[in-house]
Backbone:
């Protein structure tokens, strides 16, 4: 039985970069990236956790990263699957709290897999530039809100780095007050776009178009 | 009864474990040159480490997450990696300094040449990291470190003018032959010597390994809130002894034997023997802590298995890092670099790495997803924000001051 959250959660805030632990209490890996899959109705669903250098390195920005990834692949050029990340299907996840608990022991759990058509790493989703159909720029995706069935129900868009909301949007009383105010100020233009409002999503041009030219500001959204 | 005993043991080891080569050297240097006029910097560092260690200890107890897990979870992989390189570099540099410090202390006891001793010390430290249990490192070395209490005894034996010392400690002033930039530089160094990130890495990772739970929080708190300040008292008494004995003679401290000189003058051979034992225990204990911190930080960033409580082959990558760090340390010491100079560098550099480690801890200590009801109270948050400002200012000021004052000379 795969993991069933009891409420919608933000994937970057609650899952990305968390420690993955087996039933034997041994560390397996970090959640270096998350796999999302196209559904027939045009929405997206979280289907697996990704790990390993091919998942982690592309998340670091800049030219040295591409050089490092190339170097890393050359170190094992004979391995045909070296560019593929390790994939942990969501069926193997027992619980996600402060860490990710699997329902299997650590031994032999990591297998490299091709993402294939229709599946995308979350980092590509987070790189999307978010516009309205009238051309208003809302920055890029900072986080995605996921429901109990792991379907993406909304995108948080704004300036800054994914994760820079630090959870202050989810707990309106989270202290210290100074930091809460600072994060709120830096993210004063950050908006929440429900998936119903997504008009078009293009992976090729890395653009997400919303039909609503004035989406709800994140700070006005109930947590 | 068992609880009281373990509480007492925890406090005693926190006192002994607080002092390391950085505290020994920096406090003696600052004491000899500035008297007690920089005591405020040590006090600030001690309060800061209490706030920092309490938060990360509580997070470890409630959520089972060690410090560097949170660094990556809250700063993301990019900034986390920058922090990893910085923190690992500083921990490694401190590791080198501690191994050198043990070798220097053993040289003072045995009169065997330092260059012969450091490889042996390095191998012994590595063997302890590889084979010895966690409680050995924490308890045996922490308790032996209490031998540094001779500095308190010596201070009383010296019978100083207490009101004069207290006046120096609470007023803003400096000796007339020193400049304000050097005074500030030593303030940064003393703050860095007291508030070291590796202490927190070790403390929180140890808590995760020993499977602390919410009911261990009072015990953890007593260790931090009683143990660290008493350790800070040891630091201040080292500075005071140096101020009283070395200050009037215009001796500036550039080697470990000068740190022990006030003890030799006041308490003679026996006192010096105890002090040297304290030096060995304190630096050896800190060598283990810093070595482990190098391994903890990289393993927690990449999600590898780490720790002293699993078999070494289960945490193979962690132990490979410890071995590698030990080899690098021995290589650096083999260049005959002066451990005291390395110490001076490491305490100042550690202040630069501090804000990026402190910030995510402060955020997570307030996050109910991690902490449930055990989030920071208003007082702790006020202190937490105050020290966030302090560590940021210190981190920004450290290198310019270092260059401006030619490392305080």
Residues:
């Amino acid at each position: 039985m795969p993991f069933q959250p009891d409420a919608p959660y933000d994937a970057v805030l609650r899952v990305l970069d968390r420690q993955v632990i087996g039933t034997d209490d041994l560390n397996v890996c970090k959640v270096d990236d998350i796999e999302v899959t196209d559904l027939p109705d045009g929405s997206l669903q979280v289907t697996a956790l990704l790990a390993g250098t091919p998942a982690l390195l592309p998340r670091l920005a800049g030219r040295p990263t591409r050089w490092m990834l190339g170097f890393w692949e050359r170190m094992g050029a004979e391995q045909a699957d070296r560019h593929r990340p390790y994939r942990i299907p969501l069926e193997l996840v027992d619980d996600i709290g402060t860490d990710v608990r699997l329902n299997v022991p650590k031994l032999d759990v990591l297998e490299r897999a091709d993402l294939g058509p229709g599946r995308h790493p979350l980092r590509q989703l987070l790189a999307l530039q978010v516009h309205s159909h009238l051309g208003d720029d809302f920055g890029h995706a900072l986080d995605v809100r996921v429901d109990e069935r792991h379907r993406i129900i909304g995108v948080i868009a704004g300036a800054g780095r994914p994760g820079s909301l630090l959870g202050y949007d989810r707990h309106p009383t989270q202290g210290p007050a100074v930091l809460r105010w600072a994060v709120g100020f830096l993210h004063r233009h950050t908006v929440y776009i429900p998936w119903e409002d997504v008009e078009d999503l293009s992976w090729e041009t890395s653009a997400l178009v919303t039909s609503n030219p004035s989406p709800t500001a994140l700070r006005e959204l109930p947590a | 009864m068992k609880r009281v005993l373990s509480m007492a043991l925890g406090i005693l080891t926190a006192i002994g474990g607080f002092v390391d080569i950085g505290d020994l050297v920096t406090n003696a240097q600052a004491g000899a040159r500035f008297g007690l006029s920089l005591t405020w910097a040590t006090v600030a560092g001690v309060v800061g480490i209490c706030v920092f260690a309490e938060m990360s200890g509580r997070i470890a107890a409630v959520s089972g997450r060690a410090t560097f897990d949170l660094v990556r979870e809250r700063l993301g992989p990019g900034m986390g990696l920058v922090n990893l390189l910085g923190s690992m570099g500083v921990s490694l540099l401190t590791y080198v300094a501690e191994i050198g410090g043990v070798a220097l202390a053993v040289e003072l006891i045995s009169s065997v040449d330092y260059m012969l001793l450091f490889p042996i010390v390095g191998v012994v430290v590595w063997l302890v990291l590889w084979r010895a249990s966690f409680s050995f490192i924490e308890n045996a070395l922490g308790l032996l470190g209490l031998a540094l209490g001779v500095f308190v005894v010596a201070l009383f034996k010296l019978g100083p003018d207490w009101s004069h010392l207290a006046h120096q400690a609470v007023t803003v002033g400096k000796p007339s032959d020193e400049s304000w930039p050097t005074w500030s530089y030593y303030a940064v160094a003393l703050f860095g010597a007291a508030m070291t990130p590796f202490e927190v890495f070790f403390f929180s990772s140890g808590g995760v390994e020993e499977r602390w739970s919410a009911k261990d929080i009072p015990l953890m708190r007593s260790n931090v809130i009683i143990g660290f300040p008493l350790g800070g008292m040891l630091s201040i008494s080292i500075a005071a002894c140096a101020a009283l004995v070395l200050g009037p003679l215009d001796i500036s401290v550039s080697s470990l034997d000068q740190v022990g000189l006030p003890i030799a003058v006041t308490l003679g051979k026996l006192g010096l023997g105890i002090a040297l034992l304290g030096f060995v225990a304190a630096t050896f204990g800190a060598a283990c802590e810093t070595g482990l911190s190098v391994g903890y930080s990289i393993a927690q960033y990449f999600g590898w298995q780490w720790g002293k409580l699993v078999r070494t082959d289960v945490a193979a990558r962690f132990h490979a890092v410890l071995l590698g760090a030990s080899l690098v340390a021995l290589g650096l010491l083999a260049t005959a670099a002066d451990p005291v100079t390395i110490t001076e560098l490491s305490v100042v550099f550690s202040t630069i790495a501090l804000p990026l480690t402190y910030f995510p801890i402060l955020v997570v200590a307030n996050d109910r997803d991690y902490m449930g009801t055990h989030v920071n109270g208003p007082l702790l948050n006020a202190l937490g924000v105050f020290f966030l400002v302090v560590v940021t200012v210190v981190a920004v000021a450290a290198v310019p001051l270092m260059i401006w004052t030619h490392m305080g000379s």
